[in-house]
Amino acid sequence: MYYVGVDVGGTNLVAGLMNEDCEILDKASHPVDHSQTPEQLCGEIVRLAKQVCQSGGVTEKEVRAVGIGLPGQVNNKTGIVVRTPNMPFQNTPVRQLFQRQWDMPVFLGNDADCAAIGEYRSGSAKGCSPAVTVTLGTGIGAGMVVDGKLFTGFAGSGMEVGHMIIHPNGHLCGCGNRGCWEQYGSASALIQMTLREMECSRDSLLWQLCGGDRSKVQGRTVFQAARQGDETAHRVLYSYRSGVAIGLINLVNILQPEVICMGGGVSNADDDLLLDPVRELVRQGSFDKTMPTRLVRASLGNDAGVVGAAMLCDSI
Ligand SMILES: [Zn+2]
């Protein structure tokens, strides 16, 4: 049997055809048209899902299930996408709309959960339990697989680790609370920290790397500057790493996962600038100083979403 996973991102729809060994046999992508209605966007998802079957030489009868991963709040029990940032879905019955055009078992998951399933099935967390995957992006997303099954809490909103409060009265978060982890550990937080430090350091290399244009500062800019010995960049990274580490320490102390996979563009930074020092901070801050939890880089990159979506049917 074969599986189809569709990763619905803010800019692209990516569909993948997968075999039982979690190998992606074929992929197709299409830009998201933000002017489309929910019905039209669902139509695109169906079209792309069928397209990879066709190009992969698989008949529709050979497909066991279709999984759809989306950013935002998703309810697989009801088949409804409650809300997604920057997309037309709002209390949209995505499963029903899909099945109206293609009568298949359809599973829905949020993108962080799909990434966690993907890493568990064929990435850095393969076969581990509990396996947590943390994605540092605009916010911080995370998912956890326990004994092969996704843990999402009682009503589907568990593991919203980006909103664990690590600083009472800290920075205001989009969720309405103050001091959430993602205000200190996400890629966006890193950019904000970099911009704040740049204001105090007019001679920093960071100004040259962004051509004097603050809006060109990206997560990777600060790592580039640090690589070239820039003091300001090192100062930013010092506080960013402690921001990342605090949340990870809490995760380790509460869950003691077998492995935590770090994903998102920021996690591609050189090990000596991010992962190695963060691992040491987490070890020092953990209750169990032997730190049996392995902290590693996620290995599937952008494919994690497609693999995880395709395997939702076996993970829920
Ligand atoms: Zn928050």
TrEMBL record:
Superkingdom field: Bacteria
One Pfam family, short name: ROK
Family: Belongs to the ROK (NagC/XylR) family.
Name of the featured protein: ROK family protein
Organism: Flintibacter faecis
